[in-house]
Amino acid sequence: MLVAVDHVQLAAPPGSEAALRAYYADVLGMTEIPKPPVLAARGGCWFRAGAVELHVGVEADFRPARKAHPGLRVRDIAAYAERLASRGAAVLWDDALPGHRRFYSEDPVGNRLEFLEPTGANRDC
User: Fold this and answer.
1) What is the pLDDT of residue 123?
2) SS3 label, residue 63
């Protein structure tokens, strides 16, 4: 039986690790976690914030995920959006999901990320 999502894997082009670290750690506020040595040789970086873990792996023929994306739940979404915007990240609000406030952004290699916070009766979901 499935019990949880362990991590989400995103892709990035070779040599983009510095830009990824700047975005995921400095802009999003995640902590970089060490990759196992056998996997570290492949490049990329792993990040964690609470129970959320994102792995960004190197892909030689990389194309950014513009539709597919992780949906990341946040608290105080307005303040989090301001954090991203103040650090130069795009914030595109979308009101099409009932019971949630949400916005989209992109990491430095063009991968789409969704940030959302339930509202009203959906807060406990």
Assistant:
1) 60
2) coil
What is the pLDDT at residue 120? 76
Half-sphere exposure of 79 (CA within 13 A, CB side): 4
Within the chain, where are the H helices?
17-21, 37-40, 77-86
Question: Which residues lie closer than 8 Å to 44 by C-beta, 6 or more apart?
Answer: 12, 17, 20, 35, 55, 56, 57, 58
- Domains of the chain, by residue range, sit at 8-124
Mean pLDDT value across residues 26-43: 95
Position 57 scores a pLDDT of: 96
The dotted CATH code for 8-124 is: 3.10.180.10
DSSP 27: I
Spatial contact of 113 and 72, defined as CB atoms under 8 Å apart: yes
